[in-house]
Design goal:
single chain, alpha/beta, Rossmann fold, 6-stranded parallel β-sheet
């Protein structure tokens, strides 16, 4: 595939058994956006780190986000950067507005509810502990994203049994083909 792919992990980063880590290992040209502090995210700092990573790409990248990484993508899209993304593949967006969110949202709340300026897909579970089914759908509608609901899949991470996650990789590869044609 031509073009850059940036992996946006969420809170605590994605461990070695997470689908993001497996996909990054399989597609050597894809790279993870690194953060100074994975455990105590500060929105403005993470947005600046993402903006720098997008700026280092040869062209407009596709963002592949999980959990808080989805909120990072939405905040970056709203930050006024002159840089652009070709698209965003947003998996299991965490609802940082929910009282049950596990840490201080450090500027990530409220969730940006403006249309994203690039094509996007929201992939969500029906029983994610970090976002209700209704909120995931509301995010997709607000962002102008295609919504893909995959049934009861928890938070779509390694703990929920989504290590290699070939179905997700197939969905992503289809999305990459769509945004790059």
């Amino acid at each position: 595939m031509d073009g850059d792919v940036l992996i946006l992990s969420g809170l605590w980063n994605s461990g070695p058994q997470h689908w993001q880590s497996h996909w990054e290992a399989r597609h050597r040209q894809w790279r993870r956006v690194e953060h100074r502090d994975w455990n105590n995210p500060v929105r403005d700092e993470w947005v600046a780190e993402l903006d720098a990573a997008v700026g280092a790409c040869a062209g407009a990248p596709v963002l592949v986000a999980h959990s808080l990484g989805c909120m990072l993508a939405a905040h970056w899209a709203a930050c006024g950067s002159p840089l652009r993304a070709a698209g965003a593949f947003l998996v299991a967006p965490s609802d940082v507005d929910a009282p049950s969110y596990p840490i201080d949202a450090n500027g990530f709340a409220p969730v940006p509810m403006a249309r994203l300026p690039f094509p996007s897909v929201v992939v969500a579970s029906t029983n994610d502990p970090f976002v209700t089914r209704e909120r995931a759908l509301a995010f997709a509608e607000a962002w102008g994203s295609r919504h893909v609901e995959i049934g009861p899949a928890g938070h779509l991470n390694a703990d929920a049994g989504y290590g290699h996650w070939p179905e997700g990789e197939r969905l992503l590869l289809e999305f990459l083909e769509q945004v790059r044609t």
